[in-house]
Specification:
There is one protein chain. With about 350 residues, this protein is of the alpha+beta class. The chain folds into two domains: about 1-220, Rossmann fold; about 225-350, RNA polymerase II/Efflux pump adaptor protein, barrel-sandwich hybrid domain (OB fold (Dihydrolipoamide Acetyltransferase, E2P), Beta Barrel), CATH 2.40.50. Helix content is about 25%, strand content about 35%. The chain contains nine helices and 21 strands. The chain has helices at about 35-45, 95-100, 105-120, 135-145, 165-180, 190-200, 215-220, 225-230, 325-330, and strands at about 1-10, 15-20, 25-30, 50-55, 60-65, 70, 80, 150-155, 185-190, 200-205, 210-215, 235-245, 250-255, 260, 265-275, 280, 295-305, 310-315, 320-325, 340-345, 350.
Length: about 350
């Protein structure tokens, strides 16, 4: 178990967090740059001392500012994977992995080669970091982080330095490592999709605080604020809510148009709906089906992402819809084409808005 409490100033930011991560669990901290995510890792690792804080790992107290306890980084048994991997350029792959180990050179080399073999990197053991690909450098960094059998695994944007082609396979390898590890892990990312893929739980960090925490599906289904809804990939619209007919809430949208929701709300609200819940119809097509929300819009962008197509739409407020390639061809969707964006009242979330 890893338990963290920290309250400290970081320039203009005040970090105030309290977190727990269980054995073998990965908590992904996701949020924008400057939110305080990396500072949490650095406090755990002993690289930053908070004004007030406590860190306990596997029953051992690493930091307790009230009691004057502050173990140095080398005594904390943290496996730390930095964003740029921080490999020593003058050392070979196996020497980088062996660096934190002690004992005779032959034993350190044997242990390092065993870890590199686990990551299918034994044939690159003598290579220097500059000759390795981004994915290979990540695997060496992971092997080094695991070399001491860490009590805690810390990963700072571990996929950020990789190109798009490498990222998918590297993410799969990293997910496998996290599943196999018995140590509590904290992973930092600015990408909610990445956090959802790699984390057992996700904490959304903003302004030095964890504003919401839960499983990826919980956060996506029930965001507590407009910020969380937007960060998890929802379309966020603003408006004013009032009670409507049939138990529905009626929302007059800022800029024009209206939608209804099965959720209760009153006064200023943020409306969230996910792009995959939004369908697109020709602008002049008569209403049909169970979609009660219908907003006139114009196609701005058409972007293919894997086996789906993301549409940027200009309406009273910006919208994003995800449709199939078949729908794009059937409806002749292209920039400038007028359409109607439709979605169900049951897919319309109402969240706090100030």
């Amino acid at each position: 178990m890893l338990a963290i409490e920290a309250n400290t100033g970081l320039g203009e930011l005040r970090l105030d967090v309290e977190l727990e991560v269980g054995p073998g669990e990965c908590l992904a901290l996701a949020g924008p740059s400057g939110a305080g995510k990396t500072s949490i890792l650095r406090i755990v690792a002993g690289l930053v001392r908070p004004g007030r804080g406590r860190v306990e790992a596997d029953g051992s107290v690493w930091l307790d500012t009230e009691r004057g306890i502050d173990l140095p980084p080398e005594r904390r048994r943290c496996g730390y994977v930095f964003q740029d991997y921080a490999l020593f350029p003058h050392l070979s792959a196996w020497q980088n992995v062996a660096y934190p180990l002690t004992g005779p050179r032959s034993e350190r080399r044997r242990a390092a080669l065993e870890l590199l073999e686990r990551f299918a990197m034994s044939d690159r053991a003598e290579a220097r970091p500059r000759t390795l690909s981004g994915g290979e450098r990540q695997r060496v960094a992971l092997a080094r982080a695991l070399a001491l059998g860490p009590k805690v695994l810390l990963l700072d944007e571990p996929l950020a330095a990789l190109d798009a082609r490498t990222r998918a396979s590297a993410a799969s390898e990293l997910a496998s490592v996290l599943r196999e590890s018995e140590a509590p892990a904290i992973l930092v990312t600015h990408d909610f999709a990445e956090a959802a893929q790699l984390g057992d739980r996700v904490g959304i960090v903003d302004g030095g605080k964890v504003v919401q925490e839960g499983t990826p599906s919980e956060l996506a289904a029930n965001p507590r604020s407009a910020f969380v809804a937007d960060f998890t990939g929802a379309v966020v619209l603003t408006g004013t809510a009032r009670r409507g007919d049939g138990g529905l809430t009626h929302v007059e949208l800022d800029g024009g148009g209206a939608v209804v929701s099965t959720e209760e709300g009153e006064g200023p609200v943020a409306v969230s709906v996910y792009p995959w819940d939004i369908a697109v119809e020709p602008a002049d097509e008569a209403a049909h089906g169970s979609q009660q929300n219908r907003i006139p819009a114009e196609v701005l962008t058409v972007t293919t992402i894997g086996n789906r197509v993301r549409l940027g739409l200009a309406g009273p407020q910006p919208l994003v819809a995800e449709v199939t390639e078949v729908s794009v061809e059937r409806l002749g969707l292209a920039p400038g084409v007028p359409v109607t964006a439709t979605w169900k009242a049951s897919a319309t979330r109402l969240v706090a808005h100030e």
